[in-house]
Design a protein that fits this description.
2 domains, alpha+beta, elongated, transmembrane helix, binds zinc ion
């Protein structure tokens, strides 16, 4: 065979191999993406539902302790204000007596940031700045109901399970098993901070809207709270930053 023909055949073979590799990569990336976006949420929902109540409670308490040891400080709200909020919260969860979760309200100061969050077993933490930002019971209810919605839809545990699946898959793929030991801690923090999917946020908003309408005949409070937060929004750790865009939420509420 003459050498120029041989070079041409080699070049052609290389090209074919390149295509095979590129196609295989596309398949792997696509399968990974499908697994990540479809299978993980499905698996997470099933696994989270099967986790016993005692584990929910342990994770709930552990999350609060971790936050108290790092970012959260004691509340500066007056006893009277705390009592008033507690009464409102009790009213909002009155119909949840048969729920698997235990709804509790906790007051904390978080770097003067207006924030609220739900933990795995139904503990809802609201910050002083968030309480002070709201002007009436309807706005407070909007914030609390959004968080209660996260608990009702089991978003906290599902997000924790999802991030654990991602960590385990990655550590198997990358061969670093030490990552597995950090799952609980990292998962907790990720779960609380911002791994709620956009869909989860919109579900929590929808829950709040329905309840607000039933209670007050209007759901405008959620919009007014979001508008105030948007005006004051100056930190990456506010209630808005861990949620979908302000415009997107207002847009969905208006529909
Ligand atoms: Zn949320």
């Amino acid at each position: 065979m003459n050498s120029s023909l041989e070079t041409r055949i080699n070049a052609q073979q290389q090209k074919q191999w390149l295509w095979i590799i590129v196609s295989a990569l596309i398949v792997v990336v696509f399968a990974g993406y499908q697994f990540y976006t479809q299978s993980i949420p499905y698996l997470a929902e099933k696994i989270a539902a099967a986790i016993p109540k005692s584990i929910y409670q342990a994770i709930d308490e552990n999350s609060l302790t971790t936050l108290d040891d790092s970012e959260l400080k004691s509340t500066k709200l007056s006893e009277a204000k705390q009592q008033e909020l507690q009464l409102l919260f009790d009213k909002l969860v009155k119909d949840k007596a048969d729920s698997e979760r235990e709804f509790k309200l906790k007051f904390r100061n978080w770097n003067d940031q207006a924030n609220a969050m739900a933990l795995a077993n139904g503990t809802v933490v609201i910050t002083d700045a968030m309480v002070n930002l709201t002007t009436d019971q309807q706005e407070l209810s909007a914030v609390l109901l959004h968080e209660i919605g996260h608990v009702e839809h089991n978003h906290v545990m599902e997000s924790l399970v999802s991030s654990s699946i991602v960590y385990v898959s990655l550590s198997f793929l990358l061969g670093d098993i030490s990552a597995v030991s950090n799952i609980a801690l990292q998962g907790t923090v990720v779960g609380i901070h911002n791994s709620y999917s956009r869909q989860a946020e919109l579900e929590a908003d929808k829950y709040a809207l329905t309840k607000l309408n039933a209670l007050y005949g209007s759901d405008q409070a959620i919009k007014s709270v979001l508008t105030k937060l948007e005006k004051e929004h100056n930190s990456e750790f506010s209630w808005l930053s861990t949620h979908p865009s302000f415009e997107e939420r207002i847009d969905k509420i208006d529909k």
